[in-house]
Amino acid sequence: MLTLKDIKVGKKVKVLKLNGEGALKRRIMDMGITKGVEIYVRKVAPLGDPIEINLRGYELTLRKADSQMIIVEAIN
User: Fold this and answer.
1) How many domains does the chain have?
2) Of 12, 55, 59, 67, which residue is the least packed, with the fewest Cβ within 10 Å?
């Protein structure tokens, strides 16, 4: 299974599932990351943390730990 953390810059993915539970999962969902949404990986910091993504018409920066909880599939 691919996670958002594994995706390279310039690639587009679709969210399949959110791992985690409780407040952390709710926070990720509140940011607009839900099942079926398309995400474009825009930038990754030099040390790999954080990553900048585009989704639903806005930019969002996520920590590596949070991006590991998002299961995705590649879009051609």
Assistant:
1) 1
2) 59
41 bridge partner residues: 53
What stretch of H or E contains 26?
helix 22-30
**What residue ranges of the chain have pLDDT lower than 70?**
76
The CATH number of residue 19's host domain is 2.30.30.90
Question: What's the full length of the chain, in residues?
Answer: 76
Asked if residues 17 and 71 have their Cβ atoms less than 8 Å apart, the reply is yes
Give the span between the Cα atoms of 75 and 45, in whole angstroms. 23
pLDDT number for residue 48: 79
Measured CA to CA, the distance from residue 29 to residue 24 in angstroms comes to 9
Q: How do strand 58-62 and strand 51-55 relate by DSSP bridges?
A: antiparallel
Domain assignment of residue 51, given as a range: 2-74
